[in-house]
């Protein structure tokens, strides 16, 4: 039986079937957890979650007459055990979640929270895979739903945050970033909600096979040798094998895990598929995976500028589905958030927000004079504003300039 109880009434031996509230608030990557020790119990009690649903068929039961000291202080109506139709209520909550449009700045902090929690979710998932534990992917759906709602409120905040990674976080944040890009691309392609969810799940799980790669190779701080690269090329198949052991994994998710390194010209791996033999979802996965990889800071190289990355990807003939890639560029913008650009005045600035109706006219935060080779007062310019004389005349390579932390101009870190 399912019972909704106050978090303060939890004790060891209980099985939590659902955390009531936002996925961003609860402390585990999965919706379900058996409270086996004091550490797990303490983690839940210290979280913002005030109510949970327990499954008395899988763990200890609870009745109002067995209140813990903390729960005894709560109002009677808050602690009465009550069987609830969890899945129906949850669906109603998701459907009613706010997706009203907000500004880039208004969505930015929530987007950062999604990535912080997503990183811990993927880290926990990898650790459990390494320990040989059976996994439940339901909790990941909560993360995908949060991404979907974030993109509905503002299509650029989450996608921009996806690029920010510390070198030692790449393995975990890469999966979260690819999931965000996949959800965005599926939405841009007008896919139905079920397909959008599958796209997000595929992004989260596409590199699961890396969890069983030798850590010395996976975390090597330099370029891989040919032998090490051959080992890493096994991760799609290893991930596919792991996912086959899970229950109810959508076929599209399995396919992306196995085929996200295939190329349109047939030179990819592991099966050297070409053209239409590669599924639509895997073609999407290839684009999102590569873009995030080349724009991210790695132990052995700095990430490329987002605008430069799109330009280079466009030059790799035979690699990507051209129609999907063009849609991907429109999604991110000709000059994605974070791009360093030069204006007609000779000033340099960082793109801080897209103009959805004019991809060549984003908002830019100007801070440097290329002519004078010195800083100028920071100014926010909307290139789409009537009468605005400035225009972008080209992108700039940040590596050629003595700038540090360009992301601070738009991300506020």
Automatic annotation (TrEMBL):
Signal peptide: none annotated. One of its GO terms (molecular function) is phosphoric diester hydrolase activity. Pfam families: DUF3391 (PF11871), HD_5 (PF13487). Residues 147-344 form the HD-GYP domain. SUPFAM superfamilies: HD-domain/PDEase-like (SSF109604). It comes from the Bacteria. Gene3D superfamilies: Hypothetical protein af1432 (1.10.3210.10). This is HD-GYP domain-containing protein.
């Amino acid at each position: 039986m399912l019972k909704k109880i106050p978090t303060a009434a939890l004790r060891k031996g209980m099985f939590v079937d659902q955390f009531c509230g936002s996925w961003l608030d609860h402390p585990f990557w999965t919706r379900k957890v058996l409270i086996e020790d004091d550490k797990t119990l303490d983690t839940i009690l210290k979280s913002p979650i005030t109510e949970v649903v327990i499954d008395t068929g899988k763990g200890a039961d609870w009745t109002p007459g067995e209140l813990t000291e903390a729960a005894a202080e709560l109002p009677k109506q808050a602690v009465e055990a009550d069987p609830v139709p969890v899945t129906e209520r949850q669906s109603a909550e998701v459907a009613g979640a706010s997706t009203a449009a907000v500004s880039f700045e208004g969505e930015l902090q929530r987007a950062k929270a999604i990535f912080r929690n997503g990183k811990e979710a993927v880290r926990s998932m990898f650790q459990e895979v390494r320990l040989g534990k059976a996994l439940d992917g339901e909790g990941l759906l909560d993360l995908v739903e949060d991404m979907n709602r974030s993109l509905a409120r503002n299509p650029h905040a989450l996608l921009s945050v996806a690029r920010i990674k510390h070198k030692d976080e790449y393995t975990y944040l890469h999966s979260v970033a690819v999931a965000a890009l996949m959800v965005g691309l599926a939405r841009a392609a007008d896919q139905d909600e079920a397909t959008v969810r599958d796209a997000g799940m595929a992004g989260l799980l596409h590199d699961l096979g890396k969890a069983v790669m030798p850590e010395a190779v996976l975390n090597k701080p330099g370029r891989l040798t040919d032998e090490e690269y051959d080992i890493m090329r096994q991760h799609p198949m290893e991930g596919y094998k792991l996912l086959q052991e899970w229950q109810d994994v959508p076929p599209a998710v399995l396919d992306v895990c196995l085929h996200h390194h295939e190329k349109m010209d047939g030179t990819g791996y592991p099966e050297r598929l070409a053209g239409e033999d590669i599924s639509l979802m895997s073609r999407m996965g290839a684009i999102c995976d590569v873009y995030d990889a080349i724009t991210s800071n790695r132990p052995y190289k700095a990430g490329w500028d987002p605008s430069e990355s799109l330009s280079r990807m466009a030059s790799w003939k035979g690699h990507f589905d051209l129609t999907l890639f063009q849609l991907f560029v429109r999604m991110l913008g000709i000059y994605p958030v974070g791009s360093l650009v030069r204006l007609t005045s000779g000033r340099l600035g960082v793109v801080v927000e897209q103009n959805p109706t004019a991809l060549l006219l984003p908002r830019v935060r100007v801070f440097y004079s290329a002519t004078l080779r010195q800083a100028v007062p920071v100014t926010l310019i909307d290139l789409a504003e009537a009468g605005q004389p400035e225009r972008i005349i080209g992108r700039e390579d940040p590596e050629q300039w003595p700038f540090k932390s360009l992301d601070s101009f738009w991300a506020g870190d």
